[in-house]
Haloacid dehalogenase-like hydrolase
Amino acid sequence: MSRPSRRTDRLSVSILLLLALAFPAAARAQAAKADPLPSWNDTPVKQAIIGFVTRVTTEGGPDFLPVEHRIAVFDNDGTLWQEKPAVQGAFLVERVRELAAKDPSIKQRQPFKAVLEGDVDTLMEGGEKALMELFAATHANMPQEQFQAEVHQFLREARHPKLGVPYTKLAYPPMLELLRYLRDNGFQTWISSGGGIDFMRVFSEELYGIPPQQVIGSSLEEKFEQHGGRDVLWREPRVDHVNDKEGKPVGNDLHIGRSPVFVAGNVRSGGDIAMLSASQQRLGPSFQLLINHDDARREFAYQEKDGASLRAAKEGGWNVVSMRDDWKRVFAY
Amino acid sequence: MSRPSRRTDRLSVSILLLLALAFPAAARAQAAKADPLPSWNDTPVKQAIIGFVTRVTTEGGPDFLPVEHRIAVFDNDGTLWQEKPAVQGAFLVERVRELAAKDPSIKQRQPFKAVLEGDVDTLMEGGEKALMELFAATHANMPQEQFQAEVHQFLREARHPKLGVPYTKLAYPPMLELLRYLRDNGFQTWISSGGGIDFMRVFSEELYGIPPQQVIGSSLEEKFEQHGGRDVLWREPRVDHVNDKEGKPVGNDLHIGRSPVFVAGNVRSGGDIAMLSASQQRLGPSFQLLINHDDARREFAYQEKDGASLRAAKEGGWNVVSMRDDWKRVFAY
């Protein structure tokens, strides 16, 4: 009876190999089953995430979601990477410095003077007009490819002022694991951020595995027109869309066209409340994750002035992440 | 020597089975190799399509494209399905009829009267103001989900005035085969149309296999706000983006964020020239397809007033499809 048994063994190995090759995602998921989220402590939030993903991927179960409905949307600043300082803000300051090096006269002109001197009060007084002037000088009046080349260079050279490492080293490992875990379970992962769509697209694929077509953000108007003898996508100094607060469900609908099922944001400005609560209105299962920056030792502890995000989380029964208690580690560097 | 030989045979079969399971897309492509585009005549256009796809998917070849760069963009009206009449125009007329049935007074009011009487001259005189009034009455001032439910119902009930079949039966089989062929070769297929983004998303997935997040079109402004006691995506009676002519490369950049490699449009209004020529500016290989409606017998023969699309095709060396000569069949019904 040794021969059939050997044959059976060989058959099992072949089938396993076959399965591994045929369904790499499933095989990875299987391998990771011991712990798909190793940087998370074993707290109720982690259990809720795994429970939800298991429910919506269990065929025949009451909450099963066909793969085309598995859309997960993440805020970026403060949700996927640190936001003190906001990286796009640091880019803007750096660009103003470069402009001042080329043309020293702008050191005496507002709102540039205020930026160079870190004079927040004067900037605030300038209001929206000052802000648009800064965006026009640093983000607009150039072809799209030039802008993105400048962002690329900035990300390569710039360092976080306190932590001393490149900004792209400051993504949160627990969230990178969560993105991968969702993708391994058939989710399409998206970013929906108040940050600039063209700014984020420079690094989203390499850093998060999120391709440019799955990034939603604020945008300037663009025109396709002749500049320098050829047609280019020209960045106009006018705001097209502000992807923050009530603008987020609008941006999500424009880009996705179907309601996200898994939505994650963070506490700071209330910017994610609208998209988190919008996702709860869909028929069928949904999951809301809100990250609370309460880890002064490993990151920064900061709160929201009016506490609106945490209040909304309580009312909606959302899952609140305490970075201090729920995460084993905050940064990888 | 019979045993090793049998073993080799078994090994070959196993490897083939393994490959088929491991790479279903490749296996399908292999199976279809005899003829991936059976509804196309064996003319230079078909050969050019297959030659291009083979080149950009040949690993190690000079034109090889990593899968994330394989983006294909198709116009919709006149490229993927018939456009006489424009289906969204037929929807608008039907909606005006329904409004008139509920409120007969609008039969005497312009621009509704002109629509109901098919009085194109009066409509033209009304210009943009009249058009926006019609869009506001039929496409706006309601929640997104209500609008899409109305489109869904229209598509179920309406019939083409001459051909007598539902509009969704009037997609072109050669183009459906092309979409499938590109997807089988790792391309992500997109629509970029002057039509309404939310209109097309109702049928794009079922008809073309193109999910809503890969549809780009014209849009009205939207707001996320309270109506009837809950937050909804509300369609405002104001144009947000016109995805036609120079608006197409802009819409493509906003939604995709990377230059399409394969772009298809059609002759009628010059609406696709900008996105076709924009795709030629990318570094590396690209393919431009322009469909000419020259088949009076099987569809409709129509030309462009100024001939700009065919002229641009000649200058750019684009591939022009003669529906009469290059397609074995035009409709499936």
Remarks:
- The beta strands of chain A are 71-74, 142-143, 188-196, 215-227, 230-241, 262-266, 287-292, 319-322.
- Residues 90 and 158 of chain A are 9 Å apart (CA to CA).
